[in-house]
Amino acid sequence: MIVLGLETSCDETGVALYHSERGLLAQALHSQVDLHRTYGGVVPELASRDHVRRLLPLIESTMTDAGISRDRLDAVAFTAGPGLAGALMVGAATGAAIAWALELPALPVHHLEAHLLSPLLADPAPDFPFVALLVSGGHTQLLVAESVGRYRLLGDTLDDAAGEAFDKSAKMLGLPYPGGPALSALARQGRPGRFRLPRPMLRSGDLDFSFSGLKTAVLTQIRREPDDEQTRADLAAEIECAITDVLAAKSLAALRETGLGRLVVAGGVSANSRLRERLAEGCSAAGHELYLPPPALCTDNGVMIALAASLRLQAGLEAPKSYRFDVRPRWPLSELAAESERVG
Ligand code: KG4
Ligand code: ZN
User: Fold this and answer.
1) 225 and 154 share one domain
2) Which of 13, 32, 166 to mutate to test the pocket of ligand 1 (most atoms within 8 A of CB)?
3) 88 and 187, same domain (yes or no)
4) Pocket lined around ligand 1, Cβ cut-off 6 Å
5) What domain range includes position 207?
6) Residue 267, by phi and psi: left (phi above 0), alpha (psi -120 to 50) or beta?
7) 141 C-alpha to center of ligand 2: Å?
8) Which of 173, 274, 299, 331 to mutate to test ligand 1, by most ligand atoms within 8 A of the CB atom?
9) Residue 326: inside a domain, yes or no?
């Protein structure tokens, strides 16, 4: 079975062809970073227009790269939410139209489920059940993934997401968008230990997160300190430590509480090398297995959309859909299990 996957939920146009037995056939990704940089963040209307410009040529080039003609496709999948409404509409309309023209199933995919399943591309892939830490620009959640389509929420952020904490702190340090990778790069020049920021909710006794207080603490420190390069690097190092300490500690607590021995980490922030190191140390000390997506597949891409749709089809969760499409800018992952049961 060959699935064409389209991702347009935010600032990356992603396209991929995934074969259920042979794996990834081809993929293409266009990042809008240069387009939004002048504005210091994603401008939704510009994002939608750029997806319109890029999507069809990317689909063409991906099909050519894979050497696949249209009649070999078995399904077309697109991100239906959560994300920016206009940006989602581009992928949904394009995906549904291609599926209609080729008389194939059109499959709406939940963006976070796609992130969560992306470590299944790694070798070895994790078996279910596992604990998943989902850390993206808009979400910070701990879940138990029981099987494809069945996810139980263990903890969530009460305010900012981890990615947002990286992005907002980066902005305060005068770093360009996208802030997370820029802050992480600056942190490498920093000396840990010069500053001490709070680790919010570290000892809250539950699996929830809160990062908005950290933002205030960062701002207070920045105002107090001289504005030189080393100070900014030292602060960046401490910000990265504070965020990743909390993420790692809560993930290990979730493994203890559930008695599960496998941790899967996904979403843009899972590209962060300090987080990857922390989790590797913690999991190895406690005898847990850790699964991370390959770094290139941590941030948004079309591969995870095609993979998620393929896994859902194989699990018998997706009935062929009508060609009416809708997008859901807000769509809690926990609602997916109930919806899956209805179709499955
Ligand atoms: O999953 P993603 O690509 O898009 C959303 O679905 O939100 O995640 C984007 C987030 C941004 O907040 C970005 O700053 C963060 O992931 N991010 C990072 C790194 N790479 C991406 N944060 C810290 N370190 C990184 N290396
Ligand atoms: Zn994402």
Assistant:
1) yes
2) 166
3) no
4) 10, 136-138, 163, 166-167, 178-181, 184, 267-269, 271-272, 299-300
5) 129-292
6) left
7) 13
8) 299
9) yes
Q: Give the confidence band of 341 by pLDDT, cuts at 50, 70, 90.
A: low
pLDDT value of residue 336: 83
Which residue shows structure tokens 């063409």?
60
What is the mean pLDDT of the segment spanning 308-331? 90
Rounded to the nearest integer, the mean pLDDT of the chain is: 95
163-185 pLDDT, tens digit each: 999 999 999 999 999 999 999 99
pLDDT digits (tens, 9 = 90+) for 23-41: 999 999 999 999 999 999 9
Q: Looking at residue 344, what is its pLDDT? A: 36
Token couple for 122: 């790694």
Whether 188 and 73 share a structural domain:
no
Residues 228 and 275 in one domain: yes
- Residues facing 18 on adjacent strands: 3, 24
Which ligand 1 atom is at minimum distance from the Cα of 115?
1
Is the domain of 140 the same as that of 60? no
Residue whose CA lies nearest to ligand 1 atom number 2: 268
> Residues near 25 by Cβ (< 8 Å), separated by ≥ 6?
2, 16, 17, 18, 19, 66, 68
Residues 98 and 228 in one domain: no
Is the domain of 138 the same as that of 287?
yes
Cα separation of 241 and 263, whole Å? 20
**Rounded distance from Cα 111 to ligand 2 centre (Å):** 6
* Nearest CA residue ID for atom 11, ligand 1: 137
Residues by chain with Cβ below 5 Å of ion ligand 2: 136, 300
What are the two backbone dihedrals, phi and then psi, of residue 18, each rounded to the nearest 5 degrees?
Answer: -120, 130
pLDDT at 342 over 50: no
Amino acid identity, position 240: E
